[in-house]
Design a protein that fits this description.
This protein is an alpha+beta fold. It is about 25% helix and about 25% strand.
Length: about 450
């Protein structure tokens, strides 16, 4: 990919003044103080819209959107309570970053767009500060966009969000609202920023064991430390192994579901459950996990409708909590496929209101993070509805994460012509050969 050149970088404030206030962050929010990067692609505008007009529309849209999403123009700050080390969002209208850029590369030169690749880092390159590692939290924007024009006229919208502000569902709602504003329409979804529905009980009541979380240590960053304000959130980036892809066709997925139901021990099985169980087994064997080790697979579950009372429509925060499935290396090798699928189902089913609140209370008592001992996280984008986002310059073509970090496996929609799922994960070369063999084995 040829060099991406910066056109302009600006800090956008709310269109009209917003009241200064503080946003409480839940314990779910505070386990996720880390930046997430993704990129969305668009074909050349069918309406012949110029790049300058697209830039003006998105900057105006962001400014208008920040009146309602005032917290996205805010900054992380320690709580005003002297006895608390929690972080909150100070809605101080500091702003949201928008960078605009151009490249002589054509979209077609990037190959398959719906998969993460190193070139995508240039599409978020202007969303980082040169001295970012030295900046304090209060100086870091919570949201940043980079709109890049390709030589063919196609566009890429790179995004960088602090995960503590929005989960995947909330990001999609934010982008849907922004798209609507660029088209000259009103908000499609009215956001609700109050996160107190996920506040810990007083006193905390831990009624279940919580294998989905790990306690933090003194050397952890604040992705692991539940929102404390005295530790750095940035560490040097590790050297990633190559990202590998595997496509499962609709026929492959149907075969997995059929295999899970074959012995009659399960009444039903979803596509996600069937694929998740297969990935769990194949990955654990491929990395040669010891038979006496316990493997934990985490997968985000939306709890908006699982808590009592349910979260209000338009809830804008983090409501995705880690479901999990656990088994020893020996069990993963020897158990029937239907048994592993059932463990995935149990990981979803256990997340009722009491279990969710017990987990929030666990985080109140035990500063921690999602489980990291012999674990990995399976993140699925295939039901987020990203393809419905339609901006003034056109409908979103596809989206992908910029990188796949160690310990993450992404499940993304397959190309429209193929359907099915694409699996992306970071493994060493010899391990991925075994992973692919196991995934495609009967």
């Amino acid at each position: 990919m040829e060099e991406v050149k910066l056109v302009e970088r600006m800090m956008i404030q709310p269109e009209t003044p917003t009241p200064r206030r503080r946003i409480f962050l839940s314990n779910i929010d505070l386990t996720l103080i880390a930046y997430q990067e993704s990129v969305s692609f668009f074909d050349p505008p069918a309406n012949q819209m110029s790049f300058s007009e697209a830039c003006w529309l998105i900057s105006r849209g962001i400014s208008r959107l920040l009146v309602t999403y005032d917290f996205m123009a805010g900054r992380l700050e320690p709580s005003l309570e002297a006895s608390s080390r929690r972080l909150e969002i100070d809605c101080n209208s500091a702003g949201f970053v928008l960078a605009t850029a151009t490249t002589k590369t054509r979209l077609s030169q990037l190959g398959e767009l719906a998969e993460p690749k190193p070139e995508f880092r240039q599409l978020v390159a202007f969303l980082r500060e040169e001295n970012e590692d030295e900046l304090e939290l209060k100086d870091k924007p919570l949201g940043l966009f980079q709109l890049t024009k390709f030589a063919c006229g196609g566009l890429a919208l790179g995004s960088r969000y602090n995960h503590c502000a929005l989960d995947g569902v909330s990001v999609h709602q934010f982008n849907t609202n922004l798209a609507s504003l660029t088209r000259g329409e009103g908000l499609a979804i009215v956001p609700t920023s109050d996160r107190t529905i996920f506040r810990a009980r007083n006193p905390p009541e831990i009624t279940h064991p919580h294998f989905e979380y790990s306690k933090a240590t003194d050397t952890d960053n604040s992705f692991t430390l539940c929102g404390t304000s005295t530790v750095l959130i940035n560490k040097p980036q590790p050297n990633y192994n190559q990202i590998h892809a595997l496509h499962l066709s609709a026929k492959d997925i149907q075969a997995l579901k059929k295999a899970a139901l074959k012995d009659g021990k399960l009444k039903n099985c979803t596509a996600f459950q069937a694929v998740a169980a297969k990935i769990w087994k194949a990955r654990s064997i491929a990395v040669e996990m010891a038979e006496d080790k316990i493997s934990t697979m985490l997968f985000p579950v939306d709890t908006r409708t699982r808590i009592v009372p349910p979260a209000p429509a338009g809830f804008s925060g983090n409501a995705l909590v880690p479901g999990f499935a656990r088994a020893s290396g020996r069990e993963l090798k020897e158990e029937e496929y239907s048994s592993l699928v059932r463990r995935v189902q149990e990981g979803i089913d256990r997340l009722d209101d009491e279990y969710i609140r017990s987990g929030i209370d666990w985080l109140e008592v035990n500063t921690g993070m999602p489980c990291r001992e012999d674990s990995f996280s399976l993140v699925s984008w295939w039901r987020l509805g990203l393809e419905t986002e339609e901006f003034a310059w056109g409908r979103l073509k596809c989206a992908a994460p910029v990188v796949v970090k160690p310990g993450l496996v992404f499940l993304l929609p397959g190309p429209p012509a193929k359907g099915g799922f694409n699996i992306f994960l970071e493994l060493q070369g010899d391990q991925v050969v075994e992973f692919r063999r196991l995934m495609m084995a009967d």
